[in-house]
Amino acid sequence: MATAYRTLSTFVEAGFVRQVELSAGKAFYEIAGEHHHHVVCTTCNRIEDVDVCLPDALSSTARKSSGFASIREHTLEFFGTCKRCARAV
User: Fold this and answer.
1) Confidence band (pLDDT; 50, 70, 90) for 6?
2) Pairwise CA distance, residues 17 & 9, whole Å
3) 26 pairs with which residues across the strands?
4) Which of 45, 44, 43, 5 is nearest to 23 (CA)?
5) Are the C-beta atoms of residues 50 and 38 closer than 8 Å to each other?
6) Is 55 exposed, middle or buried (0-12, 13-18, 19+ CB in 10 A)?
């Protein structure tokens, strides 16, 4: 198992894979590619990619209000209940 995590770490450093933390203490790995975000079901932990993104103006506002010189990336995750879990209630 340690070898697998070392390999994943090497892939992350090389930019082939990116690590995404969607739940406290849980890391997920996905092939690096086009920028996207996620929606996560808090009942069954189902994860779906979503192609929505924040407007550039919001990154600019965050940079200015924080006093940062630059912002090079961001993440956006939505948490809720998927349709399957909602029907099961």
Assistant:
1) very high
2) 9
3) 23
4) 45
5) yes
6) exposed
Q: No. of H helices and E strands in the chain?
A: 3, 5
Write 39-42 long-range contacts (CB < 8 A, 24+): 39/77, 39/78, 39/79, 39/80, 40/77, 40/78, 40/79, 40/80, 41/80, 41/81, 41/82, 41/85, 42/79, 42/80, 42/81
What tokens appear for 68 in the block? 């940062």
Cα–Cα distances in angstroms (integers) from residue 41 to residues 9, 45, 47, 88, in the given order: 26, 5, 7, 13
Q: Cα-flanking dihedrals φ and ψ of residue 73, to 5°?
A: -160, 165
Give the separation between CA 81 and CA 62, rounded to whole angstroms.
Answer: 29
pLDDT digits (tens, 9 = 90+) for 10-65: 999 999 999 888 876 778 899 988 888 999 999 998 999 998 888 888 989 999 99
